[in-house]
UniProtKB/TrEMBL annotation:
The keyword Membrane applies. It comes from the Eukaryota. Residues 1-17 form the signal peptide. Pfam families: JmjC. PROSITE patterns: JMJC. SUPFAM superfamilies: Clavaminate synthase-like. Coiled coil: none annotated. This is JmjC domain-containing protein. Gene3D superfamilies: Cupin.
Amino acid sequence: MLCLVILFFSIFKTCVCEIDPLLLHRNVSSSLFFERDELGTCYFPPFCEMDLTQCNIPKVFVDDIDNPSEFPVIIQFCRNDVNGEKDCSALYRDIIRNESGQFTWDKIISEVRSTKDYERYAALEYSHGSVYDRAQTIDIHPLKDRDRKYKKIIESIAPPSFLSEIDIFNDLIGYLTTSDSPMMGNKWVIFGTTGMMSHFCISAYFIFFFCGGAHYHFDYYLTSFWNLVLSGSKFWLLTAPYDTLKLFPNETQLKEVMNLPIYNFFNDIYPTIVHNEISVPYYHCLQEKGDMLFAPPIYYHSTINVEKPLSVSRNLITEYDYQQTFSFLTHWPSLLSEDVDTHQNVGAIQTMELCAALFHYHDGMFRSSACWNKEFLHRLNALDIDLSQGKESWNLWSKIHKKQNSQVYVDMCNNAKKHPFFSNFWV
Ligand SMILES: *[C@@H]1O[C@H](CO)[C@@H](O)[C@H](O)[C@H]1NC(C)=O
Ligand SMILES: *[C@@H]1O[C@H](CO)[C@@H](O)[C@H](O)[C@H]1NC(C)=O
């Protein structure tokens, strides 16, 4: 767990070196992004000095894998046929349905974003965006189960069965579809322009992370994830949980690194990780069409778009790691998470709902998780939160019943056990 950080030596002091503003704001076409100009000068040094052919993540063709790995792995759905052509039939056979042609970069962006946003993306990609401008086109877009707009896209993506068999996150979310908690998303579509980096600002709901770009990060709830590139390509860097703490032993330093803009990360940090004298393992690789990257929980990662990518992704809570997820959820930092805009608590409520859903799903798993221990109940009671979420009916109800938070929670769990569909049991 993160709290058991042992202080290792630090390899380097984080140096946030100034990047020449002329380079940062120079317009570069997408095709030249990783290249040098006529004088042999890099358009943007960190990117042109990267060796994109380097790869130390194992690649396995989908038919040869039936277990998730303890380490990052790339599951391939395309391979070269006898004529040397890329054959992606396994991609269409197993994962995506694209008869309607919806999985193209342009179509997806215009479907999930506003026209204005799409025009901004297209202008930067097809004309001349600068490194700085491109870094602003960040999009990890949630495919919300509760929003009809996404239904067609969600239904056209089928995760590989060996992963959905061990995943319980999707079952829990499925049960909670009547809830409106903001952080219940497990499905994503990810896109951006060449040169920009995909990132997800986890800090919005977890107050112990900072917003404004948690670029190098691990996924919320300590979930594992898969990410499948449908078109274009991107380059990944990943570090294992303990190795990350060896690289950045002090918390302030790690937070600083997590907050770096992508160009700073690849300018200052990536080279030191790749060329470090005392070897701390890392994973890096170019991910292309039909490559599905699977990463176990708490693998920190950062990516850079090499050719305008379109990918789809899912977070998983698996049978192997659900205990650490629920342990994370039921501890203070997560319980205290607030919505940045409304300052309303979201952490405690989400945790209660996810625990209730776990009880509905499997009471054995519930009992062996942190959802079912005294400390969690004490923590809930110590919380001074408004479980009503502004709903009038609650105030009256709670006045009459004078229930402690833990009692509300236990009632919720019992209700969840009885009901095939979840509804906000406390209002
Ligand atoms: C880059 O291109 C945009 C749009 O084409 C233009 O408005 C901007 O002035 C250019 N920036 C530089 C530094 O040339
Ligand atoms: C989906 O179909 C469209 C139209 O035929 C095509 O342009 C696009 O490349 C396809 N996407 C994938 C991921 O194969």
